[in-house]
Amino acid sequence: MNPSAVNVFLSSLKAGLSPWLFIIIYLLIPWLLSSCGSSSPSSSSRYDMEFDRAPSEQVDVSQIPNAVPKPTQRSRSGNPKSYVVLGKRYHVMSSSQNYKERGLASWYGSKFHGKRTSSGEPYNMHGMTAAHKTLPLPTYVKVTNLKNGREVILKVNDRGPFHENRIIDLSHTAAVKLGIKATGTGLVEVVAINPGQSYNTASAQPQTDLPPAENTLAPISSRTPNTITEAKPSSVGLFLQLGAFISSQNAHQLKNQVNSALSFNQANVSTILKNGQKYYRVRLGPLSSAEQADSMAVKLTKKGFEKHRIVIE
User: Mean pLDDT for the chain?
Assistant: First the structure.
């Protein structure tokens, strides 16, 4: 018992409080404090996905409509300039204008159902919502499953996923509609829908991965379908990229270092032409699954190659 606790104990005796009652309260205080969860993005336990699961009840997702984009004030609690989760700092984007990205999506379910999201709204696993690490809250996005062409419109109202190489966390319903619930992850494209912008659910054009593209959304006819929309699926591959160089020599040097460290020749060099400039990319892949990408990412990090990211094309 620390000195301050001793002083409180002596004071409680003078006040006539039972010593046993004081001891019980004293022992319970740490447990009570540890049980108080935090909705702040800085709380790592808030984003611990262990023991998460799908809802036990059956829900007809075809009756759940897409989110409807509309002008909305920014969340006061969900848009700090930056925040830290699991020791990593994230910087919130000042605008979602022209945001488009391809990567891996995951989903979250009943463990968080009814709990406060980073924007302050309660999480509804049956709603058409999502979590993103850096988009302003709220932001409306179109998410396309690149494997089957399914598309949905979602409202981003939470932070996450804080798993390496994941770009968006979907509600359970969104995951079912996109067809990625069973696999747990999916290859997706995420495009921001800005308030007042016309949109539809046609497939967006593929992105180039390096250097970062300045993507512009063309105005297209507006509609908000209540059911799953399927565009033409694209043939895509999953890669782990370690770098891109103007110099072929530098790229092949990194490739050789990676292959030597991994003890097998999996890294390769490919080229891409961007704005008239040829880039040499060092990559692993195509990979068969998100699990293989995760496994390779862990191996690379252990060998000292910490700069790598998912590329889908």
Answer: 79
**What average pLDDT does the segment 19-27 reach?**
59
Q: Do 143 and 154 meet the contact criterion of CB atoms below 8 Å apart?
A: yes
Cβ neighbour number for residue 26 with a 10 Å cutoff: 14
Q: Say if CB 135 and CB 93 are below 8 A apart.
A: yes
The candidate with the shortest Cα–Cα distance to 242, out of 307, 168, 295, is 307
In order of 183, 217, 287, the CA distances from 312 in angstroms are: 17, 20, 10
Q: Is 167 found in the same domain as 104?
A: yes
pLDDT digits (tens, 9 = 90+) for 91-144: 999 999 999 999 999 999 878 888 999 999 999 999 999 999 999 999 999 999
Non-local (6+) Cβ contacts of 26 within 8 A are: 1, 5, 9
How many domains does the chain fold into?
3
Spatial distance between the Cα atoms of 193 and 178, rounded to a whole number of angstroms: 18
Contact 281, 274 (CB under 8 A): no
Q: Where do we find the tokens 């062409």?
A: 149
| pTM for the predicted model, two decimal places | 0.71
139 lies in the same domain as 275: no
Q: What is the spatial order of strands in the sheet that 277-287 belongs to? A: 267-274, 277-287, 238-245, 309-312
Residue 275: C-alpha distances to residues 212, 215, 217, 278, 279 (Å)? 12, 13, 19, 8, 10
* DSSP character at residue 67: P
Q: In this structure, are 227 and 254 located in the same domain?
A: no
pLDDT digits (tens, 9 = 90+) for 263-305: 878 899 999 999 999 999 999 999 999 999 999 999 999 999 9
Pair 172, 25 in one domain: no
| Rounded-to-5 percentages of helix, strand, coil across the chain | 20, 25, 50
Domain span at 242: 238-312
Q: Are the CB atoms for 101 and 212 separated by under 8 Å?
A: no
Contact 187, 312 (CB under 8 A): yes
